[in-house]
Amino acid sequence: MSGYLFRLFSVACFLLFGAPLAPAAEANDPWPGLVQDIFNNRPMNDGSEVIGIEMPARAEDAAIVPVTLRTKLSPGDGRQVLSITLVIDQNPAPMAAKFQLGPDAKVSEISTRVRVNNYTDVHAVTELSDGKLYMIKTYVKASGGCSAPAAKNADEAKGRLGQMRYRQFAKAGEGPASGIREAQIMIGHPNNSGLQMDQVTHLYVPAFFVNELRLWQDDSLVLTMEGGISISEDPNIRFTYVSNGAKRFRAEAKDTEGHVFQREWKMDDSGT
């Protein structure tokens, strides 16, 4: 009889405590609400043939998780990619970045580093010139990235504030003024999330981050970025585009305290 009661008790516990777990997990999925808040409930289409997203399944450091976004439209496809929005569903501010692509730059790849605060789905949503949104997602295991202490102390971060470096990477056999180009912009900035604690005062450091970035080749727009607290310290954006033969590259960044940082390089000044 005792064995029967034990089994009965086990079944009752499963029904009371085990069965609701799966529905509860589904009910806590933030994505439907994010579609409403970020994209005004616009329909989402399968983006597997339009956009790719690459992130590690398990992050080594949740404060600097690499992410690469790649466009996948075939050469014969007449549509253009207008924008790519990166959403980290479980982060306190889920919209990590929105990239608007210059109409003539043919940007095909963007890489950066982000903070991931919890195990989460990460969505990339692309808007094409056909007026539709296309979505793809991946899953990342990481935690604590938004509250992780800054790698640099406050004085060091202040001394590097707004410093920008530009690098370009030529493919074999291609000169710097033509063809497909890879470039990288690095900005010295603490990009404080507002969730980090000062290790001396034990007070939270106010949010302070780069929220706008614009890049041009001569006067032709390459891309813009609207950034949030999920972009890692010292924002680093690497991208692939098609050169128009420009002689100079320009960058302008703004942060949440109203600072404006501007820099211009000659195309042969890579690495400075």
Description:
- The chain is mainly β.
- The chain has a single domain (30-266), classed as Sandwich (Immunoglobulin-like).
- It has helices at 2-18, 21-27, 31-39, 154-159, and strands at residues 44-46, 51-54, 65-71, 81-88, 95-101, 109-114, 120-128, 133-140, 164-170, 180-187, 210-217, 220-227, 236-242, 248-255, 260-266.
- The strands form two sheets. Strands 1-8-7-4-5-12-11-14-15 form a nine-stranded mixed β-sheet, with no helix packed on it.
- A hairpin with a 6-residue loop joins strand 4 (81-88) and strand 5.
- The protein is globular, with a radius of gyration of 22 Å.
- Residues 36-146 form the Ig-like SoxY domain.
- This is Quinoprotein dehydrogenase-associated SoxYZ-like carrier.
Topology:
Blueprint: H1 2-18, H2 21-27, H3 31-39, E1 44-46, E2 51-54, E3 65-71, E4 81-88, E5 95-101, E6 109-114, E7 120-128, E8 133-140, H4 154-159, E9 164-170, E10 180-187, E11 210-217, E12 220-227, E13 236-242, E14 248-255, E15 260-266
Parallel strand pairs: 1-8
Antiparallel strand pairs: 2-3, 3-6, 4-5, 4-7, 5-12, 6-13, 7-8, 9-10, 10-13, 11-12, 11-14, 14-15
Pfam families: SoxY, SoxZ
Domain Sulphur oxidation protein SoxZ: 178-265
Keywords: Signal
Quick structural summary:
This is Quinoprotein dehydrogenase-associated SoxYZ-like carrier. This protein is mainly beta. It has four helices and 15 strands.
Provide the spatial order of strands within the biggest beta sheet.
Answer: 1-8-7-4-5-12-11-14-15
The chain-level mean pLDDT equals 88
Rg (CA only): 22 Å
Stated plainly, the CATH topology is called: Immunoglobulin-like
Shape: globular
Helical stretch count? 4
Class inferred from helices and paired strands:
mainly beta
Instruction: Work out the helicity level.
Output: 10-25%
Order of helices and strands: HHHEEEEEEEEHEEEEEEE
Give the CATH superfamily: SoxY domain
How would you sum up the major sheet? 9 strands, mixed
Number of strands: 15
Please state the second-level CATH architecture.
Sandwich
Low-confidence stretches: 1-26
How many domain regions? 1
CATH class: Mainly Beta
Protein name: Quinoprotein dehydrogenase-associated SoxYZ-like carrier
Organism: Bradyrhizobium australiense
InterPro entries: Fuse-rel_SoxYZ, Ig-like_fold, Ig_E-set, SoxY, SoxY_sf, SoxZ_dom
Keywords: Signal
